[in-house]
Design brief:
single chain, about 425 residues, mainly alpha, Growth Hormone, Chain: A, about 0% strand
């Protein structure tokens, strides 16, 4: 724990210039290319790289925030559950609010989405830094972590909603969007892998220490890697400047009445909640229930490496057999293996389960974001006069999944009391 700030301080001078180089390169590309034109490899990579730093931070909080609050910050289980639940609920509420504000934003020279991504990044760095800082006082730590976790959730939403909505403006070709989404998911899982690897090793080493000094901090981490968030890969996106706009309220009602969107959201809501519930409790399970304290960080890395490798496989599978078949196969695959680890808490079994679980994790990450643009296309065909409300689809999808995940995580942590 004591090496948190010193370990990550060396990342800042490298990642920030790297992010700016990608950012400038994409702004320099021609703006008059047609949306239906085939995307270049450079465009796909620059778009994908933009989401990686966010996932580095998300991985650290998802896997290790719970055990950090309990073991390092030393707040009780009830307070930790409240931090997780209220923070997730706050993040869920902020999604539709940000989506609404985006639809009301003015057009700029770099579009309507880019200013949100660029503007929130510096504040996101600061909020994440203090989320992993242990304050010298004890009585007010609950409010400290609650405040900064809510702030972090708000700012990450200000980045994620416009970034995910940007997919719709890359191309009108479904295959090109699916390909760009596959690149994005690969880079995001790599970001998750980096976050889990670095934070996991820090947590593992902290278990060998007798004391965790109160001045220690876990993450300059996103603070350092978030410089790369300005990589906001503005991949030749073009917004609908000339089409007729309708009010946000009318657009919202139409979206909420669109059957395919409701079906997609309901289908992946429970899947996403299940994955996040396992993700958040996995470290605690390995440490205190399965007696895998010395292996949990390597098991997490195995899951993520398996997910990274399997994303191209799922991309091929969905093109060959269809997205519905891919979703069914990918999600049901994890069930017998997770049950196996519960009943046979063995090291060898744990690694077998990790490899198999990585396949389902990859499917749960890739398929919703690959199917959502198709739903938006279907909505456009059914409502050709309703334009400029793509952010509603993405923000409310994240709202429902975050809110449900917040309830489940809060209840699961409260059960530890």
């Amino acid at each position: 724990v004591s090496s948190y700030s010193t370990f990550f301080s060396g990342w800042r001078p490298f990642l920030f210039p790297l992010g700016m180089r990608f950012f400038i390169r994409m702004l320099a590309e021609e703006k008059n290319e047609f949306l239906g034109q085939k995307l270049t490899l450079c465009s796909k990579l620059c778009f994908a790289i933009g989401g990686a730093p966010k996932e580095v931070a998300a991985s650290a909080t998802a896997f290790f925030l719970q055990i950090y609050l309990l073991d390092v910050a030393q707040i009780n289980a009830f307070q930790a559950s409240m931090v997780l639940f209220i923070g997730k609920a706050w993040g869920a509420v902020s999604d539709p609010v940000v989506g609404f504000l985006i639809t009301k934003s003015r057009w700029t020279k770099i579009g309507r989405l880019m200013p949100w991504m660029v503007g929130c990044t510096p504040f996101l760095v600061v909020s994440y830094f203090y989320l992993w800082f242990v304050p010298p006082f004890i009585s007010g730590r609950f409010f400290w972590y609650l405040g900064f976790y809510c702030l972090y959730q708000t700012l990450i939403t200000c980045f994620h909603v416009p970034y995910s909505a940007l997919t719709m403006f890359l191309s009108t070709d479904q295959k090109e969007r699916d390909s760009a989404t596959a690149y994005r998911m690969t880079m995001e899982v790599l970001g998750t892998l980096v976050g889990a690897a670095i934070q996991g090793q820090i947590v593992a080493s902290a278990h060998t220490l007798k004391h965790c000094p109160p001045h220690n901090m876990s993450a300059s981490y996103l603070g350092n890697s978030s410089g790369a968030e300005i990589v906001t890969r503005l991949v030749r996106s073009q917004d609908y400047l000339t089409e007729k706009q309708i009010s946000f309220h009318q657009g919202f009602i139409l979206v909420m009445r669109h059957g395919p969107y409701l079906t997609l959201t309901a289908a992946f809501l429970f899947i996403t909640v299940a994955i996040q519930l396992v993700q958040s409790n996995f470290v605690l399970f390995c440490t205190y229930a399965a007696d895998l304290r010395d292996h949990f960080q390597n098991i997490v890395l195995t899951i993520l490496v398996s997910a990274v490798i399997s994303i191209p496989l799922w991309q091929w599978f969905l093109q060959r057999f269809g997205k519905k078949t891919a979703a069914f196969c990918g999600i049901t695959w994890i069930m017998p293996f997770t049950m196996m680890l519960v009943f046979i808490p063995n090291v060898v079994v744990a690694y077998v389960v990790a490899v198999s679980s990585g396949l389902s994790v990859a499917a749960s990450l890739l398929l919703p974001w690959s199917m959502l643009p198709d739903v938006v296309d279907d909505f456009r065909l059914a409502n050709p006069y309703c334009k400029g409300h793509e952010a509603i689809f993405y923000s409310f999808y994240v709202f429902f999944t975050k809110f449900a995940a917040g309830i489940s995580l809060g209840v699961s942590t409260l059960c530890l009391e």
